[in-house]
Design brief:
Blueprint (H helix, E strand, L loop, with lengths): L4 H6 L6 H20 L1 H33 L5 H16 L2 H14 L7 H25 L3 H9 L4 H34 L9 H10 L2 H29 L2 H10 L1
């Protein structure tokens, strides 16, 4: 059934021509802002990337170490507790967590606004997917492969480094990829407490009724998340052992 667009536009209360024109104008203004101030957008993007890289590098180191520690035999109850506590962190709203961290850091006479509380918050948010994936990947390594390593005279440390971790890399990288993409969005809220990044045009636009600034910030945060997801997907593929890649293709 063909739909007459002009007839639809004439329906009262359904689509307002003025609203369509206004929306188009906002996108034009956002494009003009991008062309006029590319240096500002580049600066905000680099600030955002720096926050994300520092926070997720910290989360990766802590998460992998914790995941390895709780994956040892006999630590199943500890693992459940750690993963449960990490999952609780994701239920805390980001602004509330920023506020809590600001109070704690202020009491410790450390910088309570800006970069530090945002990085700590993003590190805590990024722990769950990394810890969970590290633990799950190590625990699901085929016992026959582990026994083969023991039969070759490997110590538990050697089995961990040469057998378990290489086989766990794809799953660990998937957790890191999830943490990075998730934190890109959360980091935008960090601009509210002076951390910088791509949240700045969004909050400035809200404060000054500048929809073009809101559009610029939202679009670039989204693009950054998509680009980082594609990059991490490639890194995940590269770091996957060749044998696992071949096995995956044969299963397909």
């Amino acid at each position: 059934m063909a739909v007459n667009l002009h007839a639809v536009l004439e329906l009262p209360g359904l689509i307002n021509k003025e609203n369509i024109i206004e929306a188009q104008l906002m996108w034009i203004l956002a494009w003009n802002y991008l062309l006029k101030y590319p240096d500002k957008i580049l600066e905000w993007t680099l600030q955002h990337l720096y926050i994300i890289l520092v926070a997720n590098a910290s989360a990766a180191v802590l998460g992998i170490l914790i995941g390895i520690f709780i994956s040892r035999e006999g630590r199943e109850q500890l693992a459940d507790t750690v993963i449960y506590l990490a999952s609780i962190m994701l239920t805390i709203p980001s602004l509330a967590l920023y506020g809590i961290l600001m109070g704690i850091l202020s009491a410790l006479t450390l910088p309570s606004i800006g970069f530090l509380p945002v990085v700590i918050a993003l590190t805590l948010y990024g722990l769950l997917p990394i810890v969970r994936n590290t633990y799950t990947a190590i625990r699901e390594v085929d016992p026959a492969i582990i026994e083969a390593g023991r039969g070759m005279g490997m110590s538990e440390q050697q089995i961990l480094v040469k057998v378990k971790l290489p086989l766990a890399v794809p799953v660990i990288m998937a957790g890191l990829r999830q943490a990075i993409v998730m934190n890109i969005g959360i980091a935008a809220i960090g601009s509210y407490i002076g951390a910088g990044g791509l949240g700045q045009p969004i909050f400035r636009g809200i404060a000054n009724y500048r929809v073009d600034l809101i559009i610029v910030g939202a679009v670039f945060v989204s693009l950054l998340a998509i680009i980082m997801d594609l990059i991490m997907g490639r890194v995940e593929l590269i770091t996957t052992p060749k044998g696992l890649r071949i096995r995956g293709r044969s299963n397909d």
